[in-house]
Amino acid sequence: xxxxxxxVATCTPPHELPQDLVERNARRILGPRFAQFERMSASFxxxxxxxxxxxxxxxxxxxxxxxxxxxxxxLEEGKALFSKTANEALAKAEKLAxxxxxxxxxxxxxxxxxxxxxxxAAELGFRSDxxxxxIFGLGCAGGVTGLRIAQQLAIADPGANVLLVVMExxxxxxxxxxxxxxxxxxxxxxxxxxxxxxxxxxxxxDKEIRLGTGSEHMWPDTLNIxxxxxxxxxxxxxxxxxxxxxxxxHMKDAADTALAKAEIGQNDLARFVFHPGGTKVVEAxxxxxxxxxxxxxxxxxxxxxxxxxxxxTALFVLDEVVSQGKTxxxxxxxxxxxxxxxxxxxxxxx
Length: 350
What we know:
The strands form three sheets. Strands 1, 4, 5, 6, 7, 8, 9, 12, 13 and 14 form a ten-stranded mixed sheet that branches. A two-stranded antiparallel ribbon has the order 2-3. Strands 10-11 form a two-stranded antiparallel sheet. A hairpin with a 3-residue loop joins β13 and β14. It has twelve helices and 14 strands. By secondary structure, it is α+β, with helices and mostly antiparallel strands.
C-alpha cells in the first residue's frame, strides 16, 4: 500500500536568540570558568548558525537550573508548541483532529508522562480511541525514524490517518557546571523547534509526496558518539568531535545500502535531504557522497536560521526543499544516537 505525506509543518518557540547574543552570554557565564572557552569561541562565527529559537528568554540561562526548572519549562512551552505545530500540519493537510487515527510523538529533551499527545488531546480535539505512539531517545535521527514509524503504522492500518509531531527543547539543557567541550559545542549549535506531518493512503489535493521503503543502519561500538548523560542537574550532552570524520568515512556505505533497499540509484536522485548536524557534518556529507560543494543549500539555510534542533531539523529541511519547488526522487536522512543512520526515500511529483 502506498503512503503519502499529505503535509509538513514547522514551528519555533517565541524567543529568538541571535548568535552574537548567545556568544556574549556564553562568554560571560562560561568564559571565567572554562580555560578553553576563548580558543573554542571562534566556532560561534564559523558554525554556520546565525540565530536559533528557544523555549526560554536569554536571561533564563543566567542562573543555574536543576531538573525541575528545566522540565517544568519543557512541559509548559512544549505543550503549546506541540499543539500549534500539530494544528498547522492538520490545516495544511485539510484534515480535522478527529479524523486522526494514530498519533506518533517524538521528543528526547525532557520527560512528559502523560506524553504531549495526551496533554494536548482535549485542546486539539483527538478522538478518545486514538492510538498513541510516543517515542523517546532517538535524538537527531528522531524526525526521520519517526516518519518511517508513522509510515509503517499507516501501512499496517489501511485507511488510517497518521499524525507525526516531533518536538525538541535542546537549549534547556545548557550547562554551566560540567564545563566540557561538548557543552560549548551544544551552546554554539543547538536550538529548539517542532515539526509535524500528516500521512495517509490518500495522495491529497496538493503536491503528491509518495514515501518509499525506509531503512536504518546501526554501527557497533559507537554508543559514546552521541546521546545524553543524566544526573541530578539535568541532561548532559554527549557530542563527540569525531562525528564529521565518522560521516565522511561511513555515511557513503550506509546511504548506498539504503538506496539499494529502496531500489533507487544515486544518479536517479533529485536530491538527498539531510539533517544538518553542523557545518562540518554538511561538508563531510557532500564530500563522501561526491556532491558538488553547496549542493546541500537547504541544509545550510536551516542550520543558519534555526541551529541544530535535533529531531525536527531534517523535517525543517524537507519543508524548505518542498517550498523551493523541488521535485523527483529524494532520500531523507539523519544520524542519531546508537550510532544510527536513518533513511526514508520519497518521490515528490511535479
